[in-house]
Automatic annotation (TrEMBL):
Keywords: Monooxygenase, Oxidoreductase. It comes from the Eukaryota. It comes from Rhodamnia argentea. This is Monooxygenase 2-like. Residues 3-355 form the FAD-binding domain.
Length: 414
């Protein structure tokens, strides 16, 4: 009998395990891969993410590694016009945005966990519930036939979540766009200012890069449609530099051509319809979802990973509150109530972020007509972007202190 089983060892899964550990709940992470995966190379962390990371106890060591992003520039490839976009935050807003290595974030979270918390090469095939002694018990079956019982299951298993499917959530849909991502390495230094986001917009395309440190840059290219065939990283790099971004400034082409090919990926952009999150079944009994398993969204506001970190803290907070009322016990009968509170708190927030991210992408990449240029260059970059950025100034709260718990974790109680 495990306390809590977390399916998936990505950002949401690791962060949720850290949050639960801090409130005295022992979690087991089942990760299907053989090691921590960092698909996507890097990600932006906005003020809301730093609030969550502070609650998880890892914000300081991550912030010290990366320069804050207080501004960016957007170049219209057709007209050559350049707009400056400000992302600065003050003390009231919290920590400023930073773009960091995805793998560094995963490793920082994993370092907070106890040994043997993550069980790699563990692919689940089904989730079920049954009642024992009047309390719900969850059962996770692995592809080797192993059955693991627990008091709760948290699905953090991404876009194609088995747990979300068991809950009855409809699968994510493709937006009709795709994104190429990669890391570039300049051994002698690139001489570009760290933390400054450079973006380029063209007809149906949006690309950009940002320096992570004095030798590495993260770059992306969002285009309409998806790759017609599976391409290896070298072919993807050539497709971007010679075709998709051939009209872009030489500085962008140079960044792409310095790519670490092991980091280059190309995949479709998918999201869950906002109304599926607003009205869908996000929990049943003692089972729920977090991260992309709950709210897959486009990356146009950089909120996928940030929202996953929020989920972890909110879920940990509600379960911690339930434990505090029991004097340090994790009681299966109380978990369902705590999960319902978590779902109620996250439903509207996740719905709004999905819709705002989709709108942001549509406005920035909607075409080259006079109307779309006006909506993008005037309405979005001069008026809306500040309002949308306000959504990142969100406080997910702090984790409760459960001083009565023994160091090995909470007591087991049905």
């Amino acid at each position: 009998m495990e306390e809590v089983v977390i399916v998936g060892g990505g950002i949401a899964g690791l962060a949720t395990a850290v949050a639960l550990k801090k409130v005295g709940v022992r979690a087991l992470i089942l990760e299907r891969s053989t090691e921590l995966r960092a698909i996507g190379a890097a990600l932006g962390l906005f003020p809301n993410a730093w609030v969550a990371l502070d609650a998880l106890g890892v914000s300081d060591k991550l912030a010290a590694l990366y320069a804050p992003s207080d501004k960016g520039y957007v170049t219209n490839v057709q007209t050559k016009s350049i707009q400056e976009v400000r992302y600065a935050s003050n003390d009231r807003d919290g920590a400023p945005p930073r773009t960091i290595h995805r793998k560094v974030l995963l490793e920082a979270l994993a370092e907070e966990l106890s040994p043997n918390t993550i069980r790699f090469s563990s692919k689940i095939t089904s989730v079920e519930t049954q009642v024992e002694q009047g309390s719900p018990i969850c059962m996770v079956t692995l592809d080797d036939g192993t059955v693991i019982k627990s008091k709760a299951v948290i699905g953090c298993d991404g876009l194609h979540s088995i747990v979300a499917r068991w809950l009855g959530l409809r699968p994510p849909v493709c937006t009709g766009r795709s994104v190429v991502r990669g890391l570039s390495l300049f051994p002698e230094g690139h001489r570009l200012e760290p933390g400054v986001i450079q973006q380029f917009v063209d007809v149906g395309k949006r690309a950009g890069f940002i320096a992570l440190n004095d030798k590495e840059l993260y770059w992306f290219c969002v285009v309409m449609g998806s790759p017609k065939e599976k391409l290896d990283p070298e072919m993807i790099q050539r497709e971007v530099s010679e075709n998709l971004a051939k009209d872009f400034p030489p500085v962008y082409i140079d960044v792409v051509e310095h790519s670490d090919l092991s980091s280059v990926t190309w995949g479709p952009l998918m999201f869950r319809y906002p109304w599926d999150v607003l009205f869908g079944n996000l929990a049943r009994s003692n089972i729920t979802v977090a991260g992309d398993a709950m709210h897959p969204m486009t990356p146009d506001m950089g909120q996928g990973g940030c929202a996953a970190l929020e989920d972890a803290v909110v879920l940990g907070r509600h379960l911690g509150d339930a434990i505090s009322k029991r004097g340090g016990e994790l009681v299966a009968r109380d978990i369902g109530f705590a999960i319902q509170k978590y779902v109620k708190e996250r439903r509207l927030r996740a719905t709004a972020l999905i819709a705002a991210s989709y709108l942001s992408g549509w406005l920035q990449q909607g075409g080259s007509s006079r109307l779309m240029r006006f909506l993008r260059d005037v309405v979005f970059y001069r008026l809306l972007i500040t309002r949308l950025f306000n959504a990142t100034r969100y406080d997910c709260g702090k984790l409760p202190s459960v001083s009565s718990l023994p160091s090995s974790g909470s007591k087991s109680s049905i």
